[in-house]
Write a structure and sequence with these properties.
Length: 343
């Protein structure tokens, strides 16, 4: 057996795979996959089989973070739902096997786009990729909770209130330095929370780099990284996704500053109009508030990545650089609030 820097106990893993996933002969090879900031992820090759293993990270973890059991449940439930997900094989909650809980799913061959500006594609290809992404998030928010068995996947109300409280706690638990913009957002957001509520399945981290596209076609083959999924407000989930139009690449993987028309990427109003057509909506109330909340939320997530990097338990080699984006993201969120106050 061989391993490429995975530091996993291969004999124990091989025995578990044979018992719970499928028999195989030959060499087991485990290779870390780049890109994940939260849960370490590995490609597993065993004879003709190709799987992906995703585990909780080592070390002390924040409460409710790294919920791979929920990832496994929701992706298994979504099989055949119209939301593309990998085939799930098995979940192991026995930390004695490899040192933490993990699950195994199919390896999906395809393209992952790290840059939302999609360098290397033609304007027509970019347009079709964005339309495919829009189709998937609209399908996600239309998932039948009863048919998928996900009615109890989260609380059915007060999502925004709970999210503000949760991410304030998470931020405080991982705070490494004072960020004035975060302090202002922590005070302003609960005081100005809009009324009204809706409930659907939400992904919580729906970004272009969490999707696998067909190798040659503008089609989504799999939505990944469901750690933050729950029952929640679909427009809050959509605003997180569309936040890319409001932030720069420096702030966090944004589109702001690009000539979108020349690139073939839809403008924000056009992208939102396509979502509304697909979901039967006629309006997107409190849209700017939801955007400011999501910038605050993203800053809290980035702060958690920074804290893990400084503790030496981050899943990604570039975690500290990524985590340092917490401050500019928080500042973008406060600018969004100031813009709302001027209008």
């Amino acid at each position: 057996m061989t391993v490429n820097d995975s530091a996993l106990p291969l004999e124990a893993l091989a025995n578990w795979l044979r018992q719970h996933v499928g028999a195989f002969e030959g060499t087991l090879k485990v290779t870390p996959l780049a890109g994940g900031q939260s849960n370490p992820t590995y490609r597993v090759n065993a004879g003709p089989h190709r799987w992906v293993l995703r585990r909780k990270p080592p070390g002390v973890l924040l409460a409710s973070a790294h919920a791979i059991e929920r990832e496994y449940r929701v992706m298994r439930a979504l099989a055949g739902s119209g939301v593309p997900v990998p085939k799930m094989h098995a979940l192991c909650e026995d930390a004695g096997v490899i040192g933490s809980s993990f699950y195994v799913m199919d390896f999906v061959e395809g393209r992952v786009f790290a840059d939302p500006a999609l360098p290397g594609l033609s304007p027509n290809e970019r347009s079709r990729v964005y339309d495919a992404m829009n189709e998937v998030i609209a399908a996600l928010h239309r998932v039948d909770l009863s048919a998928t068995g996900l009615c109890d996947y989260g609380r059915p109300s007060q999502y925004l209130t709970r999210q503000i409280e949760r991410w304030t706690r998470q931020y405080r638990a991982s705070e490494t330095e004072r960020i004035d913009a975060m302090e202002r957002l922590i005070e302003w957001l609960p005081a100005h929370r809009p009324e009204g509520d809706e409930t659907s399945l939400v992904h919580g981290d729906f970004r272009i780099d969490n999707l696998i596209f067909h190798p040659t076609e503008p089609r989504v083959l799999a939505v990944l990284d469901w750690e933050l999924s729950t029952l929640g407000h679909p427009l809050v989930d959509l605003a997180y996704h569309v936040m890319a139009w409001r932030v720069t690449p420096t702030e966090f993987r944004g589109l702001k500053g690009h000539d979108l028309t020349t690139l073939g990427i839809p403008l924000e109003p056009d992208y939102l109009a396509a979502y509304c057509r697909r979901t039967g909506r006629t309006a997107l109330p409190h849209w700017d508030y939801y955007l400011s909340f999501n910038m605050f939320r993203m800053a809290a997530i980035l702060q958690g990545i920074l804290a893990r990097a400084l503790q030496g338990s981050a899943a990604s080699a570039d975690a500290e650089r990524t985590g340092r984006q917490a401050r500019p993201m928080a500042e973008a969120g406060w600018r969004q609030v100031q813009q709302m106050q001027r209008t």
